[in-house]
Design brief:
Blueprint (H helix, E strand, L loop, with lengths): L3 H4 L9 E8 L2 E8 L4 H7 L4 E8 L4 E9 L2 H13 L4 E4 L2
Parallel strand pairs: 1-5
Antiparallel strand pairs: 1-2, 2-4, 3-4
């Protein structure tokens, strides 16, 4: 995971929102909604993930980014802890 410490200085009035889900034994997907100005920051945070889709939600004027990665559960949980600790993205699990 890259970008947490370097990008901690960005200031937003509302944290980007996102969801995550596990698709296979070790495959995770993350979907993030953010302003257009934060796309580079989010892309940097998920730079070691594969971006599988992006789009726009015109009702909220937000970008939607979807990433996936094959990783062990313990490594994914470490990433979630970093995101939570650094208050970078408000991520919730899809159940």
């Amino acid at each position: 995971m890259h970008g947490f410490e370097k990008r901690r200085a960005f200031v937003v009035s509302k944290l980007p929102e996102g969801t995550y889900w596990k698709t296979d034994e070790e495959e995770y997907n993350v979907q993030i909604h953010c302003t257009k100005g934060l796309v580079c920051t989010i892309s940097e945070i998920f730079s070691d993930w594969t971006k599988v889709a992006d789009g726009v939600d015109p009702t909220k004027n937000e970008k939607i980014l979807i990433f996936k990665k094959n990783t062990k559960e313990k490594d994914f949980n470490k990433m979630l802890n970093k995101i939570s600790t650094h208050q970078t993205i408000n991520l919730k699990e899809v159940k």
